[in-house]
Amino acid sequence: LFSFQWKEREMDVHSWLRRSLSRPKKTSTPSAINPQHKTREAQEDEEELFGVTDQLIEFVKSFTLDTFKNFPLQGEQGANCGDDTPTTSGNVQKDLTDWQERHATLVLSKIKEMSQLRFQLCPRHLKERQFWRIYFMHVKSYVSEYELRAVRLEKLKQMAMENENKSDTNTYEVEMSETKQEMNVG
Prior knowledge:
This is BSD domain-containing protein. Residues 20-45, 164-186 are annotated as: Disordered. By secondary structure, the protein is mainly alpha-helical. It is 69% helix and 0% strand. It has 9 helices and no strands. The two termini are 36 Å apart. Residues 2-18, 20-31 and 77-89 have low confidence and may be disordered.
């Protein structure tokens, strides 16, 4: 009886996880496209998820033009004027991870000082890519735990999807073998 209850509970968890993964992502809803549609609570939850905390905001507000201009970038030549790398609709660099891209978009919309700095620096003094590399190097201690959490969550989702695909395949194989047996008997 205990093993039956455990299996039943395991199936409930598996069903819940499968349902939650099959739902459309929040970012594909109109409220993610247009922040005015979001409730204040949902917006705060998203900011927290992407590491846009009060501590980060205060730290980022202390950035100046010199914070970026004087930052030594290894492996890249100083500040160049044009950047031919494609950008997203929010004009955030595509070579960022999805998490970094969303974080950057939230920061630009939440912290007007950061948006102004970016406008003054790119592309006149820094390439877009350089700007965001410098930014993420500066804020690493503030956002690394949030980014790591997002990576782990994504990995768990992938594992759940793989597990679901395996169980679907196993079910199919069992059904096929049962059908073959019935055909041989009949």
